[in-house]
Amino acid sequence: MTGGLPEAGMASEQGGGSELSGRLLSFLKQYHLSKQDDAVIAMLKDISAGGRAPRKLGNWGSVSADEVDGALEAFRQWKTQGRPGMPGRYWSRTYSQWLECVVIRQNPDGTLLLGRDVEASGTADYVHPSGIPENLEAREVEGWFVPKEQASPEMPKEQVLRVIADFDGSTIGPEYLALNKGDELVFSHQEDGWAFGRVLRRIGTARLHHDLQAGWYPPDYARLQS
């Protein structure tokens, strides 16, 4: 496999006309590879102007709601268009195994042209000329959409907490976390008696298969790690 797409090119073109939106789009794509994009989306909405806890995004500075909305819309379009440029694994029914690939483009019929790398230009370079989208999953490759040293903006030191008691937020609402004792959280902020955080590590399967990765929880259910 060759390296990933450059940050500025494809991302800035689809980022809603804003350089920062383009960077945020690349950031979202990179975290999509590790299935953490939902948590990043929640964080961006939270810290943008008008969000629950507006603050500067490290050396990227303040982020407006319009810049976040532009990045999110471009991200939705990218997924609708088949996630071009994404490294993935394709389940081959012919070979009964996963094949590493890169999405070249979406075909008119909705199937995907899958190549061995981003520069695939002929049938010999194709993994599948008309892959079924449902058979494709993202494949995590460090530094693919964003160079490793720029994988995230400079952020304040994270406050990591350990969950001290089980909490099933799914009985309250879809925006509440389900946690097991021993899970680790990154604390974001507190509001109206609830804490907002992102799951850093789970000790097992989330309760009731409620796999929300960022949301609300009772602040006294988690403590700073010693």
TrEMBL record:
Source species, please?
Polarella glacialis
Keyword Metal-binding (UniProt): no
**Record key words, sorted:** SH3 domain
Q: What is the lineage of its organism?
A: Eukaryota, Sar, Alveolata, Dinophyceae, Suessiales
Is Lipoprotein among the key words of this record?
A: no
Annotated SH3 domain ranges read 156-226
Organism superkingdom: Eukaryota
Q: What is this protein called?
A: SH3 domain-containing protein
